[in-house]
Amino acid sequence: MITVTDLRKVYRQGEREVIALDGVTLSVPTGSIHGIIGHSGAGKSTLVRCLTLLDRPTSGTVAIGDKELSSVSDAELLNARRSIGMVFQHANLFDSRTTFQNVAFPLELTGTPKAAIAVKVNDLLNLVGLGAFADAYPAQLSGGQKQRVGIARALATDPDVLLCDEPTSALDPKTTDEILDLVKDLRDRLGITVLVITHEMDVVKRICNSVSLLEAGRIVEHGALAEVVARPGGRLSAALLPLPGIMPEELPAGLVLDLLYSGDQAAAPVISDITRRFDVDVNVLAGSVESLGGAQFAHLRILLPVGSDVPAIKAHLSANGIAVTSKEA
C-alpha cells in the first residue's frame, strides 16, 4: 500500500547542504501497522512531510497503492492528500468548533452536502467512542478525547493510509494504551494501513507488525517485528527485549551467555535442562519475556561457572534454535 523508493530530501542553508533523508526505501503492505522509530534528528519529521507532500522530496518517489504522489501537480495535490489521514501529537482542534464541527471540517472543504456530512460525522464519532460528545468543545474534553476527535477527523475523507506522528507522546500511560488499542481496532475494522512515527519502543511493541529504525536520514534496520527481535546483536532486538547493560559488581568467574529464543522454546525450561544435562550450576543474571509480533520471545543472560563444557552447551542450545552470544565475566 505504501511504497517509498530512494527518497532523498536535501535542504540548503546558504551554500551549505543538509541531508535530512538519504535514500529511504520502504514498503508497507495493505492492512498492516508499521512503526518508524528514531531519536530526535533522525529524520522522522522530514519523512512525514515528504510522505504527505508538505515538502516535496529532492528525489525519489512516494506511492499510495498505484498512485504516485510525488509526481502529481500542485493543482492535483489536494485530492492526492485525501488518501492519507493525519494524526498528530496534539490534536490541533479548532477551539471555537464543537467536536462535530471539527470532524466535519475536511468534508466541508470538499463540498460534501450537509446531510451526508451529518451521517458521516456521527458514524465516525460512534466509531471512536465519542457519540455522546458531538456538541462538546475542545476545552471540555480530556487529552485522550481530543486525540479521538483528531483520529475521527483524519478518517473523514476515507483515507487508505492513517499516518500517526507521535500520536501518544503527550498522553498519560493509561490513555496511551486506550488510543493505541483504538488505532489497532480501526485497522481491523476498516482495513486501513497505518504508519506510526514514534520514539517510543512501547508503541511499537503494542501495535506494530513491522518496524524500521531511522538514523541520520537512513533506514538502518527494517523487518517484521518477529524477524528483527530474533536477530542477535541487532539494535532493534536489544531495544525490544532489553537486558540490564551493567553486570553485578561482584560476579563469580565464568562465562556470560546471552540467550535469545522464541516460539515454543520461549516457554521451555531451558535453564533446568542445561543444569540436568551438563551437571552445571547456572546463575541467571537477567531476563525478559514478551509477546511481540504474534510470537513469544525470551532473552536471558546467564553465567556458567569455570569448568563448564561450554562448547557442548553452546552446541546443544544452538541445536534447539537458541541464539547464543558470549563474553568472559
TrEMBL record:
The keyword Nucleotide-binding applies. SUPFAM superfamilies: ACT-like, P-loop containing nucleoside triphosphate hydrolases. One of its GO terms (cellular component) is plasma membrane. Keywords: Amino-acid transport, ATP-binding, Cell membrane, Membrane, Nucleotide-binding, Translocase, Transport. GO terms for molecular function: ATP binding; ATP hydrolysis activity. The keyword ATP-binding applies. GO terms for biological process: amino acid transport. Coiled coil: none annotated. Residues 2-241 form the ABC transporter domain. Homodimer. Forms a membrane-associated complex with FtsX. Belongs to the ABC transporter superfamily. Part of the ABC transporter FtsEX involved in cellular division. Has ATPase activity. PANTHER family: AMINO ACID IMPORT ATP-BINDING PROTEIN, METHIONINE IMPORT ATP-BINDING PROTEIN METN. This is D-methionine transport system ATP-binding protein. It comes from Paeniglutamicibacter cryotolerans.
